Each structure stands twice: as structure tokens, then as C-alpha cells.
Amino acid sequence: MLNGTSPIVILVIVANVLFSMKGFDDYTFLDKFKFQVGRVKGDEKIRMLTSGFLHVDWMHLILNMYVLYMFGDMVAHKLGGAYFLIIYFGSLLAGSLYTLHYHKDEPYYSAVGASGAVSGILYASILLVPGMELYLFFIPIPIPGYIFAVGYLLYSIYGMKKQVGNIGHAAHLGGTIGGFAFTLLLTPILFTTNTILVVLLAVPIILLLLFGDKLKSL
């Protein structure tokens, strides 16, 4: 199954698995490195990075790593391992920054998971392969990647507003913004080759950046 998979992607997956397993067995370790608003606003900025390599359980870990395997390899093969890492870690940090901003008045808000980084990689792959089609559970017809991307973003906005499930929706959104921005910075030719797709994906992101703070008051 891993034949031909980029070694960089495999390395990131292995790192996530090892650190997450350590956190499963050692709550002190998890608590020390998870994202927590109060701690991050203090002198523990490293949590913005380390929290992205921890997960709450096996299902959380497997889902994120499966999506990373499916789409990360696409990005790594299209752009190379170095650019993949820039997008991955840029999206991870963007997810943490957006989470910190949105929950800035909740010092005990905490989160873990690679969802921000994975969301960024997902968006990068859709930008790089505009004809991509995805199959979702229980839906037997393919969904164009750009429709999935917009729907995913809108669901994350709704989830962030309504606090749906035990999910870091703000990290998803921040990671999406990071993946979108870093991919375009690294491959600006997409502005001319995939102009319509770039504009389509940019509109909800721009609206989120302009009006995201108003979500809490709605």
C-alpha cells in the first residue's frame, strides 16, 4: 500500500503515530504538549506545534492519517518534499493561530490533532489537481474537489459557531487558510492556470477573515 509513497509523508505519519501513542498512555505527556489558550498566551508557544502531533484516540488518529496519506502524497509528488513540509507546518501553525484568535477569551480551551495541517494539505491538493473527484461515505457519485472544499469550509464555520462535536473546527479553518495561502505563495502560476478555482475557494476564506469575529455574536 505504501509503495511509491513519498518518504516525507511516511515520516510525518510515523511521527504522528508515535507521539499520539505516547499521549494515549501518558496523560501528563498529553497535558504538557496539548494546545491550551492560557498556556500558549503565556510562555508555552511550542504547544502550537506539538499539539498537532497528538490525538485523543485511535479513531481520531487513523482518520487524520488516512486523509494525510491520500492527499499528502499527491502534494509531495507535485511539489516535492520540502514544499510539502512548508505547507504542512504552515497549515498546522495557521490552524493554531486561528484557534488562539477565535478562543482568545477562553483560557482553558484546549485541543489536539493534526486536523489543521491535514486540512491545509487537502486544500493544497485540490488547488494542484482541480479535476479531482472525491467519494464520500454512503454517496455513490463522485463529488468535484472544489465543491467538497467549499462545503467542508462552510461546515467548519457552522461547527465552530455551534461547537458541534468534540472537534477543533477553528483549527480546520485556520489550516485551510494556511494551506490555501502557502500553496499559492509557493506556486503562483496557479493564479493564471486555475484562476476560476482560486477565486471560488478564496471567496469564503476572505469572508471568514472579514467577518469571522462576528460569528460568536450571531
TrEMBL record:
Compartments where located: Membrane
GO BP: proteolysis
Membrane topology annotation: Multi-pass membrane protein
Gene Ontology annotations for the cellular component aspect, listed alphabetically: membrane
Keywords: Hydrolase, Membrane, Protease, Transmembrane, Transmembrane helix
Leader sequence residues: none
GO MF annotation terms: serine-type endopeptidase activity
Peptidase S54 rhomboid domain location: 44-187
Source organism superkingdom: Bacteria
Classification via Gene3D superfamilies: Rhomboid-like (1.20.1540.10)
Transmembrane intervals: 6-25, 81-100, 107-129, 135-158, 170-190, 196-212
Family in the record: Belongs to the peptidase S54 family.
Xref: PANTHER family: PRESENILIN-ASSOCIATED RHOMBOID-LIKE PROTEIN, MITOCHONDRIAL, RHOMBOID PROTEASE
Protein name: Rhomboid family intramembrane serine protease
